[in-house]
Amino acid sequence: MKAKAFDRAFDAAAHRVLAWSGRHAEPSNAPWIDALRGELEQVEGGPARLVWALGGLSIVCSTRSNTLTRIWRSLPAPLRISAYGLALGAVMVVAIIWSIVIAPSHESDSEYAAGYLVGYLVLFAYFGLSGFLVARGGSSMGRAVLTGAATAVVGIGMALVTFIIIDNLFLDVVMQQPDKAYGFAHSGLASARDYVNQGNVLGFVTAMPMAAAIGAGCGLVGGLLAHRLGFRHAATA
Amino acid sequence: MPRRPDASPQTLLVLAALFEAPDAWHYGYDLSRRLGLRSGTLYPILVRLAERGCLETRWVEAERPGRPPRHTYRLTAEGRALARSRLAATTPAHRPAMEGWGA
Residue B13 contacts by C-beta under 8 Å, 6 or more apart in sequence? Predict the structure, then answer.
């Protein structure tokens, strides 16, 4: 008696799962939920029926994932190439605002040499990862190199622009950094604003070509790694 | 130029099972039991194959009245060609799993 009650409960849950899946599946996939429902009658035992019905969730999830893929592929190529850089830039903007405005440090940069080294290695690995992911998706090696370069240029560019804005908006806070104060004192410039802007412009002009070259190199390494691991162009079915 | 979309071991199993009796119509539950695949694995594969025109589908009335109709499947000509090429390219490591399924 108890076993039958359990079976009925599982059976009811299975039907609810399929009903939910039917409501949330893309209209074109609704027949597949009906297909699962049709086979449900063949499955014996409440728990097994519930497991069978869970296939409806897989159809819902896989079609959602396909939708996201279609949206991604419909984006303009420059935006897709820059996406990894935009994500990196967003993280760096938050980190910069946090470290300069919200929780400013009053120690010299040399105190954090090891941290900076790790940070650069992570950045290079991220540039390489962007190339790897693009090549893994079947794109050419040239696209992997381009994506690595774009990731670096967009990400670093967003960080440098943030520095320019923050340095001008929060000049008094920025000038409390020992390295900035020391540099300004020995710069011969009349104002702290001129000093930080000169440094930022110089940094922008020199860093961007370097970022592009390093990003391209890392993207190439990532692309080669992807091809080495067997992610090659393939004919679609 | 995406990754090979129909080269997973599970997809190869499904292709092999359908290719074994290419003219017959196959039920989803029977395929699931024969291949040891859960519905959550089997049906997304069937959906993809159908979307690519590799799978023909048909509804049949249930044997017992009052029961919902059942969905059945068989490979199209394109699906057979795909199965032939994919199964021919199957690595030796995967062959034991395909034995008995037309590979």
Answer: B35, B37, B97, B98, B101
